[in-house]
What we know:
The chain is an alpha/beta fold. Helix content is about 25%, strand content about 15%. It folds into 2 domains: about 1-25 and about 45-140 and about 220-245 and about 280-490, Alpha-Beta Barrel (TIM Barrel); about 140-210 and about 250-275, Alpha-Beta Complex (Oligo-1,6-glucosidase, domain 2). The longest helix is centred in the middle third of the chain and has 21 residues, at about 285-305.
Amino acid sequence: MKSLLHSRNIFLSLLAVVLYAHSSCWACTLTSKNAAQAEEKDWWQTAQFYQIYPRSFQDSDGDGIGDLKGITSRLEYLKDIGVTAAWLSPIFKSPMVDFGYDIADFYEIQSEYGTMDDFRELIAKANALGIKIILDFVPNHSSDECEWFQKSLRRERGYEDYYVWHYGKLDADGKRIPPSNWLQAFRGSAWEWREERQQYYLHQFAVQQVDLNYRNPAVVEQMKRILRYWLDQGVAGFRVDAVPVLFEVETDENGQYPDLEVSGTTDDKDDRTYLKNNLVENRPETIDMVYQWRQVMDDYQRIHGGDTRVLLIETYAPPAYTMQMYGNRSVEGAHLPFNFNLITVLKQGVSATTVQEAVDEWMKNMPAKRTANWVIGNHDQRRAASRYGVQRTDAMNMLVLTLPGASVTYQGEELGMIDGEISWEDTVDPAACNSNKDIYENFTRDPSRTPFQWTAGTNAGFSTASKTWLPLAPQYQTLNVDVENSSARSHLKIYKSLVELRKSSKTLQNGSYKYKALAEDLFVLKRFLNGDDTIIYVANFGDKTVTVDLQSEFDATLPSTMTLKISSLDSTKTLGSDINPKSITLAAGEALILSSRTK
């Protein structure tokens, strides 16, 4: 049975690669007529998704930790900034070794976050405000405190193979050692010995995060049961965590796991990137599992009615693999495999050419009739303003809100929040704690998880506690909701203007697109739709002032005059003024949104 399933998955994966191996030019080939006649899009296709890290959003009870009641109290803010759906990082019962990504009970709420009644109140108020709630689903592993693991440890009937267990192997001296050289994401071996069972278990993340065995049908069905349970509670879908590591290679004919080859990218033998990891990531079986989860979502909607329940997939993977997540001609997959190109590609440097490379890599590989999405930050990355440069804050928010498809905002990006400064003593992230004082800053994710900044007052309005779970980030007295809402111009007001334009503009919802990097510094995007406004986004990602002729260097059909709709914070241009596309001067970091009626 295993071999048949494996063969079927490989066939489906290879077929998908062939079907998806098409490309498109940098200018969209859709005609305006085709775009005008495009079918009305489903809610998620033009949605503004907003990620909430519950521990850091709003504390309601003064313990220094964010919670569900806190989120509920701030839903009007999400409504005000135009959020379509809020995705909550894990809120389930957990020892909090990895702050919720180590789940002890997939059916219960973590007590410090609240109760099931609190969650139902959150859902009810969100529904009343027209905001959808999406949960973080963590299927790859459970906490070692999970009842399933404790039963598996004791080899209780039905749970013997719930996790990935192995006896290991003997070295030349007859000493028992781990089954393979595989490494975990948080440094060191991915195998842990348990005396009770006299076996090793696999953990691709922290030692307390035990990998579930997806070759066991009982595990597959259990996870589908979890999806249905939370759909019954009224959630609008799921963001699925760490999908690429769901399956690993099977043992060979001798029952052994193969070692991974050395990658050559680092000399740090405890770092996961020291090995190639091709045998433990991006396996073909994982694609089929995503298709099965999509079937759960579609079946639920067919039975219960209502809006589409969405499936969003976390996948840091090569395009040929990621695009299979969408599905194929006969099977539907994820509605949106998350697009991290604006994070991963831009690690080589922020410029117009790297932005074009990031956009190209998605748009040229995306299957036909699928929906793109754009992400610039999350709880695992340093904050966008710190990575791209504070002067490019608005340019990046403009980009994700004008490109075709859905956008994803991590809490605080609308404010231009910057990284927190976390000392070794205040560090709590296991990715950093598993290192040492000298190198922890290379691994820590704490700087992007600092409390949300509501006011300039005590604890930035996040909590009344004497100490918050992480220290506040710098500049909270100026980069906060109250100050930015009351300012004549701010990152927040620019962000709200972008969302309003996106929701009111048929061009941004349904229009065709054309984009190009002009030399190293300037990136320009055109959105156009027959009978509606043409929208131009132009940004200077360089460090010097530049002047450009968009008619000669980008699009000769642009009119001689366009209207300035939105500009970045430091721009000195007057909103509503006429702009001549033949001669636009942009300061370093400056970005503009221009509009004109098509003829």
